[in-house]
Amino acid sequence: MKNTISKTMTLPLNNVQINDSFWSYYINLVRDVVVPYQWDALNDRIPNAEPSHAIKNFKIAAGEEQGEYYGMVFQDSDVAKWLEAVGYLLAVERDPELEKIADEVIDIIAKAQREDGYLNTYYTLKEPNNRWTDLCECHELYCAGHMIEGAVAYYRATGKRKILDVVIKLADHIDDVFGSEPGKLQGYDGHQEIELALMKLYEVTYDEKYVKLCQFFLEERGKEPYFYDIEAKKRGGTHHWADDFMIKDKAYSQAHKPINEQEKAIGHAVRFVYMCAGIAHLAAETGNRDMIQTCQRLWRNMVTKQMYITGGIGSQRHGEAFSSDYDLPNDTVYAETCASIGLIFFAQRMMQLEPVRKYADVMERALYNTVLGGMSRDGKSFFYVNPLEVYPKAYENNQNYDHVKPVRQKWFGCACCPPNVARMLASLGQYIYTVQENTVYAQLYISGKAEFEFESNRVILEQNSNYPWDGNINFTVQADRETNFSIALRIPEWCDQAEITVNGERKSLDGIMADGFAILEGSWKTGDEIQLILSMPVQRVKGHPYIRQTAGKVALQRGPLVYCIEEADNGSNLQQVMLPTDGKLEVNSDQNLFGGMQVIIGQAIKQKAENWGEALYKSNPKIETEAVTLKFIPYFSWANRGLGEMQVWVQERETI
């Protein structure tokens, strides 16, 4: 298999130890609260939450219990993602009790697998004679993909082969069913995910048939005559959901054109970024230049025309999908948590294709804002949809807002997001560094230690900071012996001034910057120190003039964090607030806000409504105003203090 791209890699999780004043809280939360809570949810033990039935479905399929299938057609994937999160946690820290629970789940999964390798509780229990007949709608390959990813994570963490052997048998069955050879199904999944999984399975088995199968699924997509129409005709035109929009609307699942002919982000946002992550992963392995260009083209459209300031993507409720360029409503936004997680997957793989700052910047934006905001501070409730503006009173009777929840939910009937957040945060160590040949790219600033190998020599890079609250970041080197390699430090796009010193000596950035990274070449030895200082001014951010919904408004960002105003701090009717262009903005530490957070205090003007009267509209009214002080909090922390209004974008006026 020919690869003309410089070999890149992410570090195994057991090579990274995170010890960070910001992120360790969330990783420990995943270990101590989120994964146990989700285990209870999967077993229907959460009071007043929508039932899952996911574990019971597997027990019924395994012959251990009696009953009927319950839940969405993709309910199996929730168990698989839970197992994947467990694998990542065990890779970092052994936990015999958690491992025992996982092994028991694996025993049930293995019993539920059919003799030929097939594994899917919905079809096993409800439609055993209709396997592989509705790829467009029914998520068989999606569920298989998540099970493969969970198995690979668990195998890498524990070395236990049972679940790995299950998914190898499953993948081999899929390879027997699908392909371009006569007698095989020349089709592809409705919800992309198997592509990512096959590449991960290849990385632990080195069996190239999984790479070829991934390539088949990607290259078959969008060919005419359309596979969805062919299989629907075979079924007599039946469809699984209430209507047949998934079959008719090929763009919904990015099956409207072959992938290398697609020009823009379109359709269901999660499917889109999962597909793109699969293309990028395959391209990095094979060196396929057409696919690389496809990734670059689709990335550019998405982040320059269809992404929110928070790293959210997918602006419309219908189809959980992208809309048109620059159509980014703040109150009816969808911005599914899973979509931002998929965006991070895509960004990480683009970094492996070409280590360029813009990919890591977007990864950071999505991680610190939408993904982290998708889970409550206590780890027991979640957002599926991530709005940038909330006015709860409008939700009482306006069905346009039915999908937007002003408070996080305990669980969902379609519960893809909570376990996705868990596996994302549990695997965070894999996203801090990318290694290309003899260069370590520090793409996220998260304190801890990472172990590398250069010239057959073990090197440990230790990172310490109070990021994201300040931009002072220190690196120290430990090495068995003096070693030649390069350390590349990301200078984020939001940073207007950076300083670097190596062993106390100031380094000029002139001549060492490449694609947004400061490349420090040298021979490194134990005790060497690097200090990076990133300026973190409060930035007033404007939207592109074509974005109607941000016209005349401003948002505040400091470092990687987007800020918002919330009713808990600023009272109601936030739409009456205006932030003057010359108003003073100060950064303060609020120890009463979730253990201590940096907040922004700003001078503002608020329109007064008390003397307006009863008239709904007035000609040339004199609007009274008053000076107020606004408190902006990090967006990820909103909705942790009860029901209330929230806004990211605030009206702006020229002067106080």
Automatic annotation (TrEMBL):
InterPro entries according to UniProt: 6-hairpin_glycosidase_sf, 6hp_glycosidase-like_sf, Beta-AFase-like, Beta-AFase-like_GH127_C, Beta-AFase-like_GH127_cat, Beta-AFase-like_GH127_middle
Pfam families: Beta-AFase-like_GH127_cat, Glyco_hydro127C, Glyco_hydro127M
Domain Non-reducing end beta-L-arabinofuranosidase-like GH127 catalytic: 15-429
Domain Non-reducing end beta-L-arabinofuranosidase-like GH127 C-terminal: 538-650
Source domain of life: Bacteria
Non-reducing end beta-L-arabinofuranosidase-like GH127 middle domain location: 439-536
GO terms, biological process: carbohydrate metabolic process
Record's protein name: Glycoside hydrolase family 127 protein
UniProt organism field: Mesobacillus foraminis
